[in-house]
Each structure stands twice: as structure tokens, then as C-alpha cells.
Amino acid sequence: MTEDDEIAEVRQIWSELGLPGVIDVHTHFMPKSVMDKVWRYFDSAGPLVGRQWPINYRTAESERVEMLRQFGVRAFTSLVYPHKPQMAAWLNQWAVQFARETPDCLATATFYPEPDAGHYVAAAIDSGARIFKAHVQVGRYDPNDPSLDPVWGAVEDARTPVVIHCGSGPTPGEYTGPGPIQALLQRFPRLRLIVAHLGMPEYTDFLDICERSAEVRLDTTMAFTPFIDEQMPFPASELNRLRDLGDRILFGSDFPNIPYSYADALRSLIELPGVDDAWLRGVLHDNAAQLFG
């Protein structure tokens, strides 16, 4: 498929649904030095990846922004995340500047369990952060670490959504899975968590959490694609529950770090058994539009 063909297919998908475009809550833009390291890790098929994972959109930052715009993505994120202390505040500074220069990017911030986390998260909220990213797998931290209590309190009070990679896919971590998130929500029940990848592969457990917690949402990132279905397929028995929770499902792509096309990610959703146009309109645009105003 040529680039023009892919752009035409993506635009046809959302236009036939009567949408003005797509909102993608799970895209990555990072400082070049960090993105290059991320890509090298994917190239190495390292332990956190666990398999060959070619990057489909390995282009310059400006070209990636323009590609999303040509697809008709009306709003997207710059999900940055640290893997060690004293990194998050610097990433936040970069992300603030990126959002200022890229008005269709939802201003994004992140955090790590460290003594000053509460301070720089409060500063990020004051600076206009509209979404946070937490990566329990890569960061190798317990979301219930006491140093994060002021973080969770601040984002809960600000009602700022947090995209959180907490499922055990593609490979499990010490603190991944539903248990730590259940404990977190018992202490901070109003958190607006967006569980990345539908909680893959603990899909059922995270659907349970979503049903019990009115502010928890799930993003579709990578789910239902042939690449994921080879190893961690979404259980067909849970499709009815996924449809019933349609107002709390948000589209995410993981662009640019995907080993298939953006059109494939959309097609995997529109071909789901039993979903109707209203469900798709919510997932691809309307739910996120309501959440982010």
C-alpha cells in the first residue's frame, strides 16, 4: 500500500462514519535522543518486547506530525515516560514545548516514583497538562509506591486522565497486572485512568475494573490486530462486555511504534463482530472529545 493509498483508506473509514476525524489518545513523541533509544530497543527485540518488532513510521518528527494530520487525526498525545529517576521533569519540559509548537497535541506529562514527583506533577498541571502517561512495565515501579501518593492526589483532584500501561503485555513485569491497579483505585477511587492496550493480556480483569470504577477507561492500542492476535488475542467471550462499555473505550494506535499500518489499526476495530456505527463513532472520536472537551 502506498502512502497516498493509506491516507485515503484512513480518511474513508472515519468519513463514512460521519466523523470530522479521529482522536488518538496513544501516540508517542519524545526528544530525539530518547526516541532513538526506544527504536533501538525495539530493533533488538529486548526482553520488554519479546519478539521482532519493526517500526513502521520511523521518520523525522515533523513528518510524523504531518502524517497524523493527513490521516485526519484531530488530536493526539506525546506520551513520554521515564525508565529511571531524575528523567520525568526533563521530559515534561520537552513535552510542554512540543505541545506549544503543535496545537493539535494534547499537552502531555509523566512522572516516576521519586521525592520531587509531586512537585513537578503539580507544576505540569499548572502549565496546562491535559493527560499524563505512566508506564509500570518499563518503569518497573509499583503504582502504589508512597512517593506517588501526592501525584495521584493531584491528578485525581485535577481530573486529568492518565494513560497507564499496567497490563502484563507484551511481557509481564514485577508490578504489572490488575492487582496493583485495584489497590490504587481503592485509595484514589476518582482517578481517571485510561488502561492502555485494553489491559492486555488481562483483558477480563481490566474489564471488571472498568465496570466497577466509573472513571476508568480502556484504550484499544494494538488490540485486535493480527500482530497481537497471534499471541494475546482478545477473548471472543468478552466482546459483548466491550460493546456495553462503549462510552469508555478510546482509540489508541501506538503510532509511530507499530509494526503495521495505521489503517490496519482502524480496520481491526471496524471489523469487530457486532459493533455498530454508534460504537465506532464513540471509540474513534466522540468519547475522547467529551473527555478532553
Automatic annotation (TrEMBL):
Residue span, Amidohydrolase-related domain: 23-293
InterPro entries according to UniProt: ACMSD, Amidohydro-rel, Metal_Hydrolase
Recorded superkingdom: Bacteria
Keywords: Lyase
Sequence intervals crossing the membrane: none
CDD domains, alphabetized: metallo-dependent_hydrolases
Listed PANTHER family: 2-AMINO-3-CARBOXYLMUCONATE-6-SEMIALDEHYDE DECARBOXYLASE, ISO-OROTATE DECARBOXYLASE (EUROFUNG)
Protein name stated in the entry: Amidohydrolase
Species annotation: Mycobacterium paraterrae
Lineage: Bacteria, Bacillati, Actinomycetota, Actinomycetes, Mycobacteriales
